[in-house]
Design a protein that fits this description.
Elements lengths: L1 H20 L2 H6 E16 L4 E5 L1 E13 L6 E18 L13 E19 L7 E22 L2 E7 L8 E13 L5 E11 L6 H4 L4 E13 L1
Antiparallel strand pairs: 1-3, 1-10, 2-4, 3-4, 4-5, 5-6, 6-7, 6-8, 8-9, 9-10
Length: 227
């Protein structure tokens, strides 16, 4: 994980540097910023024999990039680079789950880390007052970089089992969000909002887990600043 934190920090410094320059066509057409998303992450099984014991408090953070599609700036293509920490607790009946544990019922406390690239159409009001509203709708592409599970089977706990090889290597889904923007200074703009993401792809490889389809969804509070 250290290399991803370092990459995010490096990109953040570059973002601030470009924003402070305040010159050029790039800075007129692209807004860059940083966000922090406290979230609730939910793994949702679709078949019997697997149930969710609880959701998990998670966190997303990273860079935002809005590419303006018109001169007024109220239409934009929203993208970025995010790190997402999520997961859930799932309970598997005997015969389902990973091979080392499927002989008996087991509980998996999954802790998953993804690198995510969103792609959405963003609409924003451009009124003359201090407060503007925004909404967005689109998709995202997520790639797992870490997967661990604490497994409880027959009252024995197996900590930090590496499940990354048994996860699908990409997740794609729908994202929607809405919120407000407000000025924080001459060049800074703060944002706050709510977002929802609904994964379409099975998180766990069914051939390895025999668990049908397990989607990953999330609700998040969006906190951010544009430079």
């Amino acid at each position: 994980m250290k290399r991803f934190f370092l990459l995010a920090l490096t990109l953040g410094i570059a973002t601030a540097g470009m924003a402070q320059s305040g010159r050029g066509d790039f800075t007129r057409k692209v807004r860059l910023g940083f966000k922090l998303d406290p979230m609730i992450s939910i793994l949702k099984p679709q078949e019997s024999g697997v149930s969710r014991n609880s959701s998990k408090a998670g966190l997303g953070f990273g860079l935002m990039a809005d590419f303006s599609l018109n001169e007024a700036g109220n239409y934009a293509l929203a993208s970025g680079f995010n790190v997402v920490l999520g997961g859930s607790k799932l309970k598997y009946d005997a015969g389902k789950g990973l091979g080392d544990f499927k002989a008996n019922p087991a509980e998996y406390n999954m802790k998953l880390t993804y690198i995510e690239i969103p792609l959405a159409l963003k609409l924003k009001t451009t009124s003359s007052n201090d407060l503007n509203f925004w909404g967005q709708f689109g998709t995202y592409f997520a790639f797992p970089v870490s997967g661990r599970a604490d497994v409880i089977s027959l009252n024995e706990t197996h900590d930090r089992v590496n499940i990354l090889p048994e996860m699908n290597r990409i997740n794609i889904g729908m994202l929607i969000g809405a919120g407000v923007e407000y000025p924080l200074g001459e060049t800074l703009t703060g944002i706050i909002g709510l977002t929802y993401q609904n994964g379409f792809v099975d998180v766990t490889r069914n051939a390895k887990w025999n668990d049908g389809k397990v989607n990953m969804n999330s609700f998040a509070l969006r906190l951010g600043v544009y430079f």
